[in-house]
Amino acid sequence: MTVEDRLRELRAPGEGEARRKAWELAAAEHAARGRRRRRLGPVLAAAAGVVALVGALSPPGDAVADWVEDRVRAVVDDRPAPSRAAGLDELPGGGRILVLAADPRTLRDSPVPLTGSPWIVGGGVRRSLLGAVNEATWSPRGRFVAATRGSELIAVDLRGRRRWSVAAEATVRAPSWSPSGFRVAYVAGPELRV
């Protein structure tokens, strides 16, 4: 058995509880939004569970990312929303979390990378930052979010205002802030750019 196989079999401490809490939070937000966005709850729950899992297992780096990618595409839950109301703007440990929420049909059936809308959740706030994007990541001090959309890299502040954007000739992916927060590295086609 390889190291990757062993990492795929690992379960994070409290994974079940985190998934349950994420489901409750997402379902409550889902119910509050009404009929039009009826299927958003399970996706938010899956995204919150993934974020909690990544936070718990982040040291292995790429192996964790591969493991999460495998799991995210497999997690689609059609159970009815729980009856107990919970607020999506309250996290058990406080702080904020960046969630990429997508249509469950994308998670279930699509072999292409999923797209969704980045949300900031926690600290008494829940705010959608942009429309559909492929990836999103916090700046080191949590003041900005960098997101990719097709061949564009976009930086927005926490109110969703676009601060800057860069267009590339190829699809942009894997944005990563420098420790100083002044530069963003990303991959455009086969090239690594800063």
Automatic annotation (TrEMBL):
Keywords: Membrane, Transmembrane, Transmembrane helix. The chain crosses the membrane at residues 40-58. SUPFAM superfamilies: YVTN repeat-like/Quinoprotein amine dehydrogenase. Coiled coil: none annotated. InterPro entries: 6-blade_b-propeller_TolB-like, Quino_amine_DH_bsu. This is TolB protein, periplasmic protein involved in the tonb-independent uptake of group A colicins. It comes from uncultured Solirubrobacteraceae bacterium. The lineage of its organism: Bacteria, Bacillati, Actinomycetota, Thermoleophilia, Solirubrobacterales.
